[in-house]
C-alpha cells in the first residue's frame, strides 16, 4: 500500500498521466485496476473502464488487419480514456504457436490497434509466453511502443537522448 498511486490523483477525461519518474519520486508507483466498479468507491481500487480501452482478447483479437473492441470496454477510439491495452494471445494457450504469434504478427497488430484506438499507441501489451518468439518478440514490441510513445521513433533505441519530438538516430 505504501507505493499505491491513489485514485484521487488519476487523470480524468483522457488527460496525461504523470511521468513514472515523478511517481517513483513520490513513492506512488503502483497502479492497480479492477473490473468491478463498486471496488473503486469501497476499496479505492481504480475501475479500469474509467481509464482505459482494450481490444478483444483470445482468438477473436488475433485477426490480421482487425482490432476489435473488447465487449466490456469503451470503444477503442474513446479519447476520454487515456490508456490503451492491446491483448495478443490465443484463447487456448499454445506454447509452440506463440513463437510465431509474438514475432512480426504482434508488431503488425500493434500498428492495426494504433489506428483503431484513434492513432494512440498501446500503453500495455498482454501476451502469453513473453520469452518465446522468432525474432524480437514481446521485447521488440515493447521497444517499438516505447520509441513511438517517447520520441516518435520506430524503436526506443533510436531516440536521441532527451528528445520527445521525433529526433531519431539513423
UniProtKB/TrEMBL annotation:
Leader sequence segment: none
Record-linked Pfam families: PI-PLC_cat
GO molecular function, one term: phosphoric diester hydrolase activity
Any one Gene Ontology BP term: lipid metabolic process
Source superkingdom: Eukaryota
Name listed for the protein in its UniProt record: Uncharacterized protein
Species: Liquidambar formosana (Formosan gum)
Lineage per the UniProt record: Eukaryota, Viridiplantae, Streptophyta, Embryophyta, Tracheophyta
